[in-house]
Amino acid sequence: MRNKIFLIAVLVLLSLGIDAQTITHSFRNTSMSDALRYLSTATRHYVINFAYNDLEDFKVTADVRKQSVPDAIRQIIGFYPVAMKVVKGEGQDSKGHLLPDMIFVECIQKEDHKLTGRVVDENGQPMEFVNVAVLSPRDSSFINGGVTTAAGDFVIPCKTTDVLVSLTSVGYRRLVRHLTTANAGVLTMRPDAYSLKTVTVKGRRKVEREDRNVYTFSDEQVKASRQGQQLVATLPGLRIDLLSGQLATLSGKPLTILINGIEASDNDLKALQPKDIRNVDYYVVPPARYADAGTVLDVHTRAAENGYATGFDVMQGTKAGFNNTNVYAKYNHGHHQFSLDYRLELRNAPNCDEQDVYTFKDGGKQSTYDYSGTYHFGYANHDFNLKYLFSRGDSLNFQAKFTPTIFTWFWNSNMTVNAEGNPLWQNGTQDKRQRQNSFSPSLDLYFDRKLPGGHEITLNAVGTLFHNNQHVHNIQYDEAQQTLDDDMRQHNNKYSFIGEAAYTKDWGRTQLALGYRATLAKSNYRISNMLSDYEEYKYHATDDKHYAYAQLNGSIAKIGYRVSLGATYIGAPDFSVDEP
Prior knowledge:
Radius of gyration: 28 Å
Structural class: mainly beta
Strand order of the largest sheet: 21-22-23-24-25-26-27-28-29-30-31
């Protein structure tokens, strides 16, 4: 098996079709289930799968104009916590026809209740893109969130109906309501008198394109933001998580941040001055390189001025071992930029109560093990980023990033064991000590070059080492003697390399994208415990994966189209086990 390689897919069409069949339809306060049912009857190329009851409460108000079926679904999903996946049909039916592609649509937040309501302005007109945050009435902690539709509606899955609802929109005063029912009714927002003079620029804040919305910011928004992260957080569907201090989505979908096309972190956003942000591309349909990345933002900046920027923020618990610390610094000189940031997450929680009950049934006989007692746990996560960037505007970018991550964790518990229902079991105690340490440095090299004639070349290489040690010592006693003494130790080393090359060509309304990505990995694993008589089991594995894609998209006579071709090649895992 060591030398065998198998082909998962060679030139498999992930989504092929100049979808001449496009959808044009206006949905007005339609349930998403009914909207999907309409799209399902309007297409022959796709079979749409969804659970009617899960999506029935989500209301859709949208004007779909000459969209392919997948893009139409993405449009009606909007900011809802709903995910879509397209699976290429394989094989043929009994008449020799190719099977249609499958589209799976599902709610990614399944809760007992859904909080619903409508937001209007002072004239009773529906307000779109209002951020709705659901908070705990006890401590105002974030529970969930969403964004209003074109009809001003919001639908937010929620475990409880006793909540605070916080509404925010640029140019309007924040509105907070305490709700005890699942229907919030109609909520009216009032203009912020201080922002009235900026109302003339609201119309140009958003420009809609085929695959993304481009947002700009008013002067008042820029002045009101202390740093770049706060400014970007004013966009629909985004928030700053108060616990971590990081930018996040209201819906819980993963977030990918780019700055001038280069992957970036929250600290990179914090190091930006708000006046340096030109606009933000908010992708509705992510680029091919980030097809599985969730929500994608590309922040475009103005030319950096010479100088430096530094900052820090600290969150410290007063009654518990809780600390979040961020420190960042950036220096610009001409085309060169040097930056360093550090993030610490520290937790230390002693005297925590725990109870675990294990129940076993044998016919009509029931036996239980009841573990109860206290535990002490903590961890420290250190993230470093050291970066050098050479940039000539949009024409040339080269970045080298070194990122070492250090993680330590412990868990100590002392438990009393009560055994019932089995005469062979006896009461006793358990003393358990757990430790984990890991070190994971990585080096990321990124190069992007725009050439005359609409050509662009992107190269990216990432090398990572992951080193991890774990130690678990578990000792148990019954009322008379020691019954267990297991001292387990394991060590893991993993080496990986990811290389990617991409080429794009822009002809105005038509764009071509070609790309290739290779992932190579090798790991070594060792473990010993009482079952192996403390001799080491050794495991070694290697694997590789290659992905190539081509995508052509554009429009002809106001009809949009997209053709995609992809191939995935996976080498059969090469592994071996050495037993003691």
